[in-house]
UniProtKB/TrEMBL annotation:
Pfam families: Fibrinogen_C. This is Fibrinogen C-terminal domain-containing protein. Residues 3-97 form the Fibrinogen C-terminal domain. It comes from the Eukaryota. SUPFAM superfamilies: Fibrinogen C-terminal domain-like (SSF56496).
Length: 111
Protein backbone atom coordinates (compact mmCIF):
# COMPACT_ATOMS: atom_id res chain seq x y z
CA UNK A 1 0.00 0.00 0.00
CA UNK A 2 1.28 3.48 -0.85
CA UNK A 3 0.29 6.37 1.40
CA UNK A 4 0.13 9.94 0.13
CA UNK A 5 1.27 12.69 2.45
CA UNK A 6 -1.10 15.57 3.06
CA UNK A 7 0.53 18.32 5.07
CA UNK A 8 -1.60 21.15 6.39
CA UNK A 9 -0.38 24.71 6.24
CA UNK A 10 1.59 25.52 9.35
CA UNK A 11 3.58 28.32 10.85
CA UNK A 12 7.09 26.85 11.02
CA UNK A 13 9.54 28.77 13.20
CA UNK A 14 12.41 27.06 11.37
CA UNK A 15 10.99 27.49 7.86
CA UNK A 16 8.78 25.22 5.76
CA UNK A 17 10.63 22.25 4.32
CA UNK A 18 7.63 19.93 4.41
CA UNK A 19 4.89 21.32 2.14
CA UNK A 20 6.96 20.44 -0.95
CA UNK A 21 6.25 16.78 -0.14
CA UNK A 22 2.47 17.23 0.21
CA UNK A 23 0.66 14.87 -2.14
CA UNK A 24 3.77 12.76 -2.72
CA UNK A 25 3.77 9.00 -2.25
CA UNK A 26 5.51 7.37 0.71
CA UNK A 27 8.46 5.23 -0.35
CA UNK A 28 10.68 2.84 1.58
CA UNK A 29 13.99 1.15 0.89
CA UNK A 30 12.32 -2.24 0.53
CA UNK A 31 9.62 -0.83 -1.80
CA UNK A 32 11.67 1.52 -4.00
CA UNK A 33 8.92 2.29 -6.52
CA UNK A 34 10.07 5.89 -6.68
CA UNK A 35 8.97 8.59 -9.13
CA UNK A 36 10.42 8.09 -12.62
CA UNK A 37 11.64 11.68 -12.82
CA UNK A 38 13.82 11.27 -9.75
CA UNK A 39 16.26 8.79 -8.25
CA UNK A 40 16.51 8.67 -4.49
CA UNK A 41 19.22 6.09 -3.97
CA UNK A 42 20.39 8.05 -0.89
CA UNK A 43 17.26 6.99 1.02
CA UNK A 44 18.85 4.23 3.06
CA UNK A 45 17.55 4.64 6.57
CA UNK A 46 13.77 4.67 6.30
CA UNK A 47 10.78 5.74 4.31
CA UNK A 48 9.70 9.22 3.28
CA UNK A 49 7.30 11.09 0.98
CA UNK A 50 9.29 11.56 -2.20
CA UNK A 51 8.74 13.78 -5.17
CA UNK A 52 11.02 15.65 -7.57
CA UNK A 53 12.95 17.51 -4.84
CA UNK A 54 14.08 16.52 -1.37
CA UNK A 55 13.70 19.31 1.20
CA UNK A 56 13.54 17.26 4.38
CA UNK A 57 14.13 13.77 5.73
CA UNK A 58 13.10 13.24 9.33
CA UNK A 59 13.68 9.48 9.10
CA UNK A 60 17.38 9.85 8.39
CA UNK A 61 20.28 8.55 10.43
CA UNK A 62 21.16 10.19 13.73
CA UNK A 63 24.66 11.30 12.76
CA UNK A 64 26.37 12.46 15.94
CA UNK A 65 29.22 14.59 14.66
CA UNK A 66 30.54 18.09 15.12
CA UNK A 67 31.81 18.00 11.54
CA UNK A 68 29.72 18.78 8.50
CA UNK A 69 27.80 15.81 7.14
CA UNK A 70 29.06 14.74 3.71
CA UNK A 71 25.86 13.08 2.53
CA UNK A 72 22.08 13.41 2.73
CA UNK A 73 21.76 10.48 5.13
CA UNK A 74 21.15 12.52 8.29
CA UNK A 75 17.98 13.86 9.87
CA UNK A 76 17.56 16.95 7.74
CA UNK A 77 15.33 20.00 7.32
CA UNK A 78 16.54 22.14 4.40
CA UNK A 79 15.46 25.52 5.81
CA UNK A 80 17.11 24.75 9.17
CA UNK A 81 20.70 23.69 8.71
CA UNK A 82 20.35 22.18 5.26
CA UNK A 83 21.70 18.76 4.38
CA UNK A 84 25.13 19.46 5.85
CA UNK A 85 23.77 19.38 9.40
CA UNK A 86 22.03 16.37 10.91
CA UNK A 87 19.43 17.13 13.57
CA UNK A 88 19.68 15.23 16.85
CA UNK A 89 16.04 14.17 16.95
CA UNK A 90 12.62 14.90 15.49
CA UNK A 91 9.03 14.01 16.21
CA UNK A 92 6.30 13.26 13.69
CA UNK A 93 2.63 13.25 14.68
CA UNK A 94 -0.04 11.70 12.49
CA UNK A 95 -3.70 12.69 12.63
CA UNK A 96 -6.78 11.50 10.78
CA UNK A 97 -7.59 13.60 7.72
CA UNK A 98 -10.84 14.81 9.35
CA UNK A 99 -9.16 15.75 12.65
CA UNK A 100 -10.61 18.83 14.37
CA UNK A 101 -8.55 20.84 16.83
CA UNK A 102 -10.04 22.15 20.03
CA UNK A 103 -9.89 25.94 20.52
CA UNK A 104 -7.15 25.60 23.18
CA UNK A 105 -4.97 23.50 20.84
CA UNK A 106 -5.47 26.02 18.01
CA UNK A 107 -4.32 28.83 20.27
CA UNK A 108 -1.21 26.87 21.28
CA UNK A 109 -0.36 25.96 17.68
CA UNK A 110 -0.22 29.65 16.72
CA UNK A 111 2.41 30.46 19.35
Amino acid sequence: MIYKGVFAEANYVIGDSLSTHSGAHFYTVDHPNQPKESKHEWIRSGGWWLNHIMTTSLNGLNILSTDKVESMEGITWLTFGGFQNSLVSTEIKVRPKKFKMHAKEKALSNV
